TrEMBL record:
UniProt xrefs under InterPro entries: Anti-sigma-K/W_factor (IPR051474), RskA_C (IPR018764)
Biological classification of the source: Bacteria, Pseudomonadati, Pseudomonadota, Alphaproteobacteria, Sphingomonadales
Boundaries of every Anti-sigma K factor RskA C-terminal domain copy: 97-228
Organism in which the protein naturally occurs: Sphingomonas kaistensis
Transmembrane helix as UniProt keyword: yes
Name of the protein: Anti-sigma-K factor RskA
Keywords of this entry: Membrane, Transmembrane, Transmembrane helix
Pfam families: RskA_C
GO cellular component: plasma membrane
Transmembrane segments: 89-108
DNA damage recorded as keyword: no
Top-level lineage group: Bacteria
Location of the region described as Disordered in the Swiss-Prot/TrEMBL record: 211-237
GO biological process, alphabetically ordered: regulation of translation
Entry's Gene Ontology molecular function annotations: sigma factor antagonist activity
Amino acid sequence: MSEKDIQAGELALRLLDGEELLAARRLLVEDPDFAAAVAQWESRFAPWYDEFPERALPADLWSRIEARLARGGDALVISLKRQLRAWRAAAAIGGGAAIAAALALLLVPTTVTPPPVAPPVESPVRGPLLVASVDAGTTAVVGLTYLSDSGELLIVPARLAVPDRRARQLWLIPAGQAPVSLGLVEGEAPQRRVLATAVRQQIALGATVAISDEPTGGSPTGLPTGEVLGTGTLQQG
């Protein structure tokens, strides 16, 4: 299993933070293979949450891992930081399913070697990354990532349940303005689309995004006509 596959699993389990999370979310938008790997990890983990009972973690687990980090070399530090992150996330979620999912990453045989030293390269300036999670309960959970410098929107659906002759439509709701369509959720595979300039100009930090129940093909009026199933807020990625 490659380092990128493991990174995809960590993103699916919400184990990343800081610069690592930002890098993974950009990769999610820019690399279709990585987006597919994230979706595969998410579908692999999903059934476990109902199958495994909750278990308490050993009270001294963090101190033991951190002690090993202090003693190890660079390669061990990289490996054990991944383990520490996975176990802490599992504890935060609180269930045996999360622990089992973390184990799926920890037990993958990998050889981690320190990366070669390369001359510094000046990175291009990128626009802000905005993310949101729209939770519609049992009918859908949709993760959104908007990359402002390219105007691309990445849609990662999960638990999508759509009745016959109905559709799920995404909306941007700028403060004090009418909803603007972001298009339909087309199945459970990750989707990527470039937004129109007029839509991009209305996307801002803190704006509301929503998902509604609409007829097949989407709203005939350009505004939500069915029940609003869930909402979320665009946050800095």
